Structures
1.
Amino acid sequence: MRPTRPRVTRRGLLRRAAALAAFGPLFQATKPASAAQTAALNKNSAPSKLRITDMRACRIASNYDYPIIKIYTNQDVYGLGEVRDAGVEGLALVLKPHLVGRNPLDIEPNLDRIRKFANHRRTGGGYSAVDMALHDIAGKVYGVPAWRLIGSKYRDRIRIYCDTDESKDPKIYAERMRKRKDKGFTFFKMDIGPRLIEHIPGALIDGVATEKGLKIFCEFIQAVRDAIGWDQPLAADHFGPLDLNASIRYARAFEPYNLAWAEDMIQIGHLGQGGDAPLNWRAYKTLCDSTVTPIATGESLFGLEEGFKAFIDNQAIDVIHPDPLTSGAIRETKRIADYAVMHGVRTAIHFAGSPVGCMACVHTIATFKEFLAMENHAVDIPWWDDLVNGVPKPIVNKGYIQVPDTVGLGIELNDEVVKQHLRVPGYFEPTPEFDKFIIDDFRRGGPYPHLDEHGNLVTDW
Ligand SMILES: [Mg+2]
């Protein structure tokens, strides 16, 4: 027999509320709101009636272009999001008709609707921008930081590493890295690319280092190690057009230097120019199995199932390195990192956008069980911090970013500064050209000829 549940009647509830109200200030929340209180009520407190009304954009010209979007609602609350650096805002705007009229708080159903339009490299950027804006809205509506919507906070600050301009002189390169350490950074990455040795006869064949070239690369790493210390994590990137065999040669040569990881080594035979969106997990598995240098990749992969799962399931990677502005932003990157840690794979974060996307990453990373470091590509751009208000400045402070406890993403755009750095004219102008469906999966355009249940041909819905 099914156990009977105690019946809860409306009258019973009212009686309990009255009893609680009798306790006075202890249960202020149960008192009926006065007219003054009602007037001061946050309009966002009608979440069930919240609807998406519009999506608009602007594009900031910086070290890369930063396409920024705003999702508007019928209750004056809006959300900010960012498409992947060097992408375009249209990747998000084409999703507008799939979202308008829907409740932005239905984060997962909304994302489910647009997932089929997301892919690797920049084409993951539209989905990712929408994810950020939905979490910004939901955080504001519920009065919680975005990280609270996806998990618990495992850390109060996020460790940052930054890129550093290379030099053909190992001493100058090492000195630049030492200056990063002086600024408080505790995680480092250097580029070990063909440009460093292209002027040296016999060092390269078609962009790939010979044994002579590899020895010179090692002198660069040695110089940087001597400058920052052997006790500091040091990663490496941008090796040039390597195939699997060349990658193995490089990774083995670098083993004495205890790299934190070697990034995106295999550049041949993969998705798109540059090879930073690898789909060939088998080649990466062979590389991982051939060296003790930790291997990282993933900055241009979208999604757990679409991009990262095969690498993790097959132990084909030591460190995943998603860029949340491609990988699916807050909710999806959390899924990816949780799946990785469950399988003993570590997570670092690639990032090269504006403070909007940066703070979305910070909220996401705050919830990771384990984490190495997050990239910042803009520590040398003097006005980068000024693009937003609401967070402590400098945003990257002594090598770390503070995790906000303010609502949503915790930032607002500084309109004046953003307007000074627009790539294309227009600042969140109306976007009627995106009102109709431009991309879609299955949709009847209107009445269509078909047989009804009696076998008669009709033109109807
Ligand atoms: Mg990289």
2.
Amino acid sequence: MSCANQPDGQGDEAVVMPRRKRVYQREKGVCQRCRTNKCLYIVRSVTMCRVLTSSGCFESAVRVSVVKSLHPPLLPADARSAQPFPRPTGANVLLALSAGAGSSALADLVHERYVGRDGEVRDTTRGQREAVWERGWAVHVDFSAVTGLPSREGLLRAFAEERGLRFVCVRAEDSFDPLLSRRVAALGGGTEEGSDDAEAVAVRLDEPDLPLLSTPSSSTATPLESLQALLTSLPPPSRPALLAHILDGLLGVVAHALPNISHLLVGETSTREAQRVIAGTATGRGWALPLELASSAPLPRAGRTVTRIKVMKNVSLKEAAIWCHGRRVETYNERRWDGTGGGARRDARGKGATASIEALTERFIAGLNVSHPSTVTTINKTGDKLCFVGEADGPLCPVCQLPVDASAIDWKARSALTSLPGKGDGVAAAPSADPLAPLLCYACLTMFTPLTAAQKDRPTAEPVPLPLWVGARVQERRHVPPSELRDQVAQFLIDDDDE
Ligand SMILES: [Zn+2]
Ligand SMILES: [Zn+2]
């Protein structure tokens, strides 16, 4: 029955899957790479010897994986095949640290050879290479205020400073702090980025077209209160998606506020990447998913361009964890984004635990990875085949800052059971109706939509504040020539809109 029973190349039923390398019985205790040392780990069906020395098989395998994703975006287009060492960029680099194994291994791997230190002179005549980046910054986004986990700021500060990286810690609630970019710029010794403060906006989630309101400047809510208000008013399964956008948004703000940053390195492992493929597809992120998965992509923001590189894209969480264990680096992989926002509402069956698609996928992949070790690779290979078919410079979704699909509302109107603009009675627009819904991508529109159309699930009429970049993004979208914008949204416009 299985293809393995057929002789190779027989007729058109040729076996196309490469056969898996077997670990032969007689080699079982020996490293398959050097064939001398005793093996300790099995990584992707290959046995490897212990870490400890820099020429160890495991260590060199990880380094090769890192070079494969780190070098190509740093090399000129015509040099990609040769894999030379990248030339100095003359700029600085920002590393995202989460305290997880992926980002900790990334910082540990990259800091020595690629990032310069203050006052350090490299002797290139003795075979030392010039650092690719003049200085390294590390940023940590602290979610402890909403997740209830202990803050890892102190641990990461010590970890980063030991490796010659300057450390910045921002909190999730800083996404509502209009002074954030100025504060971060001041840390870097700069003073710019003052013009960033677009008007802070709030949204009414009870209306299907999500009208935007400007937040009164007299509002006394602290950033943390604003974040909690937004989280609480979203359906519980939507909250992890919002936190993921807040993470990306804050990394973008910090990357632009610090001086002369050319690259943002993130430690997303292949395991996390596989979760992104499955959860992203399930939550309706399919349109921009190829851009999310790309190993290098520009951060969406006007002005200076920063490129985000997923350095650990070819390294699994297991490998990263082994690396950190070998280097005695303390790591914490738990995010606990489920059940944030205070008092998760109980569902109809009285169960309190909220399971978001993100959390379910994480558990599913972790479980499957034990019994079927090639799961992650297979999912990622499928994800890598996805191509983005839209225009790269098309309009961006104000919330997730990725290109929007052309017909999110239209599509939802045909497929969803919840109330929508043009349906039902809830569209009596205020005089200054400024709907957010037509600007959103499908996934973000879903994120703001109540789970059911039942009255008890409807959010309160109280407007809730949105992260600070949403207002700026909405303004940017408004600057699109009106005729073009009207064409884009013509079919979604509400009749009594006087714009
Ligand atoms: Zn070996
Ligand atoms: Zn979006």
3.
Amino acid sequence: MSELITIKDLKVHYPIRSGFFNRVTDYVYAVDGVDFVIEKGSTYGLVGESGSGKSTTGKAIVGLEKISGGEIIYNGENVTKASVRRKINYNKDIQMIFQDSMSSLNPKKRVIDIIAEPLRNFERISDQEEKKRVKELLDIVGMPEDALYKYPHEFSGGQRQRLGVARAVASSPKLIVADEPVSALDLSVQAQVLNFMKRVQQEFGLSFLFISHDLGVVKHMCDNIAIMYKGRFVEIGTREDIYTNPQHIYTKRLLSAIPHIDVAHREEHKLLRRQVEAEYIAHQKDYYDEKGRVYDLSELSATHKVAVKNGGAN
Ligand SMILES: Nc1ncnc2c1ncn2[C@@H]1O[C@H](COP(=O)(O)OP(=O)(O)OP(=O)(O)O)[C@@H](O)[C@H]1O
Ligand SMILES: [Mg+2]
């Protein structure tokens, strides 16, 4: 596998203005120095609780949020600046899917116009060709042809997310940033939408940056995962590293929070959750510096890194 996109020391700081002169008095360090690489054709998971900076990271990569520091290298080009992004058609290659399809799909437009929009923006094709392409895209996400002339409100939440997937892949992107794409859906529908996402990935050979607050959801999707807290990464690794050998207390907490359907192990799970919670209370200050900031990542293996004091040495 080879690198598609490399994020280096990415920072997004939002100014806080206050006082009579409306001066900048402080910043929200929404993203405060994160590094990661997404390989071609792979899925990278970004997981953390609400407010940890996941969406801001995703939006900065897509170009929807101003970057305060760091670099984004895409296919060897430094695309940190908007002018370079325009020059290489970056906006065609990188698409985004949002959690709330009701507000991200234009309610006044028919499905054909919604899905064809990226095609119209980036390619010059005949109406006939366009219709054919949209039909193919609908088929890939398991939607019938008669969806073409309907409006978003005529679909269920799961169907709308599939339309969102179809639109995102219309421009043949290389990377899709999927921000909580199934969080608003029932469990059974989640699985279905995730399956269509996987299918699209195989069909087009594209990469995903998959954002979620739930480690249970990303488990079957992601090759690599970063655990985010307060704008920083507390741990990164392969799926294997994160699920079978978690090191940071925050990762362990997220793992223990995954609901278990399995009744037989429910008591066991409850006990584990209590243990993790006790460990968290007893040792949490060892995992953050005196300002509560997450430490820099230290290498445990070629794939696995964790944020601990002095690289883990005491
Ligand atoms: N436009 C903005 N101006 C100021 N602060 C912002 C802005 N957007 C986000 N923030 C702050 O940045 C931090 C990170 O927000 P972000 O939306 O990236 O979190 P998130 O991990 O996606 O959370 P959620 O799981 O709730 O979607 C939060 O503290 C948020 O309040
Ligand atoms: Mg978010």
